[in-house]
From TrEMBL, chain A:
Family the UniProt entry places it in: Belongs to the short-chain dehydrogenases/reductases (SDR) family.
Domain of life the protein comes from: Bacteria
Coiled coil: none
Any one Gene Ontology cellular component term annotated for this protein: membrane
Name the UniProt record assigns to this protein: Short-chain dehydrogenase
Organism classification: Bacteria, Pseudomonadati, Myxococcota, Myxococcia, Myxococcales
Keywords recorded for this protein, A-Z: Oxidoreductase
MF annotations from Gene Ontology: oxidoreductase activity
Amino acid sequence: MKKVLVLGATSAIAQATVRLLAARGASLYLVGRNVENLDAVAKDAATRGAAKVESKALDLNDFSAHEALVDGAFQALGGLDGVVLAHGVLGDQTEAQRSWAATEAVLRTNFLSAVSLLTALANRFEAQKAGTLVVISSVAGDRGRQSNYVYGASKGALNVFLQGLRNRLAKSNVAVVTVKPGFVDTPMTAHIPKNKLFASPEKVARGLLSAADGRKNEVYVPGIWALIMLIIKSIPESVFKKLKL
Amino acid sequence: MKAQESWGRYPRVEQRTHALTWRSDALPEVSGAVLPHGLGRSYGDSCLNGGGTLLMTSGLDRLIAFDAATGVVRCEAGVSLDTLLRLAVPRGWFLPVTPGTKYVTVGGAIANDVHGKNHHRGGTFGRYVRRFELLRSDGSRRVCAPDENPDWYGATIGGLGLTGLVTWAEVQLKPISNPFVLQETVPFGNLDEFLVVARESEADHEFTMAWVDCLARGRKLGRGLLYRGNFAPPQFDRLPLAKSHLSHGMGLAVPMDMPAFCLNRLSVSAFNWLYFHRQNGKPKQRLTHYDPFFYPLDAIYGWNRIYGRRGFLQFQCVVPYATARDALREILERSSRGALPSFLSVLKTFGDIPSPGWLSFPRQGVTLAMDFANRGEKTYRLVEDLDKLTREAGGAVYPAKDARMSPESFAAYFPRHSEFAGYIDPAFSSSFWRRMNPVALPFSLESERKGGAAAPQSLLALR
């Protein structure tokens, strides 16, 4: 990936990924909501060696702006060969259970906005017959659990969408990489007590980039989560529904 | 509340932490005092805030700008010196002043006004800080420079993180032509020989420092090895700069707290004897990469665990040349008789280049750093005695390495402390600062002393 669009560039995993891409001398188009924070990430990337850094402050929940955003990124970098989709919200499960509005907000950001953006991007990548779409999903999408099934559902739906997209784009030489991090120590999880399963954003970013380089399909980062989720997925539903997970 | 350690792992205090993420954010609203905390390489309690909150600056680790033509770098306060080296060395620049570890943040280097092996040539880190932004708990932001808010600039350099949060800083780097140092090792037989060799070395060498065998007594008291060097001269191409990073760093790690019996008088003594004699008493010259030259201990990750769960106390003092010989003899003798003599002791000379920081530690004279395994009361008393000896010799003890100096000593070492106190952010404090200022008194210690009155009993009890 030499000319990369990063969606949700101020998220911790995206920032760590941006640093690695900058060190490789990539050109970057960064999108985030907060102008000042986005500027801080852009300057960091430029100082660390990115060939070119452009940024655009935008709320990605505004779907009507997506087509123009993708156009702008292609124009600014003179084409795109990579996308890292990193924006998302954790939401509050209890709040979501009480209110459809809270549930909808999670689904809109994590699933619908991703689908809207990927629709615009996939068509262009399909036409140019090249490129890598990297999407940060979550292990939470592998199985619904009472403690965060709204977030999990948004990521689970995203995983299925990506499977279909991968199937469709395979013949066009476009890679669709689903990255499933486990627990990551970021501002998104600042309120959760940390244990040994928490990985640093830097570690996740390295895993993400090596998956992108290898044009992998679905990867767990760190790899231990493949084993953990294999076990979690293999518990029979009749047993699973009685567990406190 | 959880225990957060300083590098010496003593004292242990309970405090909360709050991670900072963006330099444009306001300070968090928390109850109790806050204190910025970088990579926690201060040894004692100056980076701790018992009962309060540490503002963890590791999230403020972005670079802002680097001008490869002038060597000026601007970055957030949580950026480590390691990150700066990775950025600057391949482009022909190096830190103007660096401490013995690269795992300190720019904010921490400012707060402690760190020094390096080149104090006689370059002075302290603070001299190369062109500008920084200071965020106060009232929400105000000040750009501080020698000619812009100079009082805040002077109070914050060496200000132990108490004047507010430094969000970003601009540092002037210095040019190098390759990543190698031409190093010479010169053995010296005692303290007198050290003083001669050290002064001589200053003329032709940018970097000097000496390892001392703390167990040598009598005529050999203060014997050791002096390391001196300069960056190697230019070569024909710039390839060495481009490939300047060694991959072996961080390869070794201390996997667990070492049991106390591993370090004893016999093992330390054997190590020191071997270390001194592998030289055969002759000077030796070699070309070395900057990494092992400046940061020998960084190669062993978590070396502080060698001292076990109870940690260790570091003591670093500087004494003026006039009193150096006698004072250092006394200090070395006293420490070699202690419960466990220092394993790693370093001697170095400081030049007369002044720092802009009001509370800066380095001043002209000879500095000695030692670390003592924590053996409880015996060790505390030893370090307190060394503090007294330093004060009597007209010297000073380094707050970043201290856990036991007395408030009276602090006041004597840092004559501008009361002026400084007016610049402390009301929401900021540290365990060190409260130890130096046990209670808010209606009178000052100085006026008490001037009046000739003894300090009241209650005050002594409070320490």
